[in-house]
């Protein structure tokens, strides 16, 4: 379960288990609050992560999007859509992080 999680993240969750459980519950409630399916939700969250230039969130949402049935082409399009909003360097960085995740799965 923890193979892709940074040690500091795991340590934080271990130290503050009750807070982590509440965060997980909130995340589940937010995900279930609307009509979007799991794949679409993950692609949207990926776009937000690209915009925030949040490497861990990009990697995590690529993994979760793939698990929800997204194709690599769909994930690449989400990343590419950030080009005119977030800029070339951010998109190239996110594309690299995506390629790292996809490569791990091969």
From TrEMBL:
SUPFAM superfamilies: AhpD-like (SSF69118). GO terms for molecular function: peroxiredoxin activity. InterPro entries: AhpD-like, CMD-like. Pfam families: CMD. It comes from the Bacteria. This is Carboxymuconolactone decarboxylase family protein. It comes from Pengzhenrongella frigida. Residues 20-99 form the Carboxymuconolactone decarboxylase-like domain.
